[in-house]
Design a protein that fits this description.
Elements: E1 4-7, E2 10-13, E3 18-24, E4 34-39, E5 46-51, E6 57-59, E7 67-72, E8 77-82, E9 91-99, E10 103-104, E11 112-117
Parallel strand pairs: 2-11
Antiparallel strand pairs: 1-3, 3-8, 4-5, 4-9, 5-6, 7-8, 9-10, 9-11
Length: 118
């Protein structure tokens, strides 16, 4: 089973940028589709973006054009570059292995908090 550790969150003003990282254990990382999710206070966890082992990507409409997902298979790490951040992007961000772009497969890590001030 892949274990995941998210990092890179913080407090940023609206319009700013952050880069999240998700470090994965396990040699099967390179063949997994990886995804980012987020959960805002009082809301359900929602899918944000995903990237296949070959580098194909897909994004939720709410972040398309602002967020970029990427991966470094040599480092077993997936990234989420977040630009033009909005207060509504405030949430705990999680990564996971995924199926069919949006279905999470593994256990959740501790996540990383992103807070965007207006």
């Amino acid at each position: 089973q892949v274990q995941l550790v998210e990092s890179g969150g913080g407090l940023v003003q609206a319009g700013g940028s952050l880069r999240l990282s998700c470090a994965a254990s396990g040699s099967i990382f390179s063949i997994n589709t990886m995804g980012w999710y987020r959960q805002a206070p009082g809301k359900q966890r929602e899918w944000v973006a995903a990237i296949t082992s070959g580098g194909s990507t897909n994004y939720a409409d709410s972040v398309k054009g602002r967020f970029t997902i990427s991966r470094d298979n040599a480092k077993n790490t997936v990234y989420l570059q977040m630009n033009s951040l909005k207060p509504e992007d405030t949430a705990v961000y999680y990564c996971n292995t995924v199926a069919r772009w949006v279905v999470p497969l593994g256990s959740w890590g501790q996540g990383t908090q992103v807070t965007v001030s207006s």
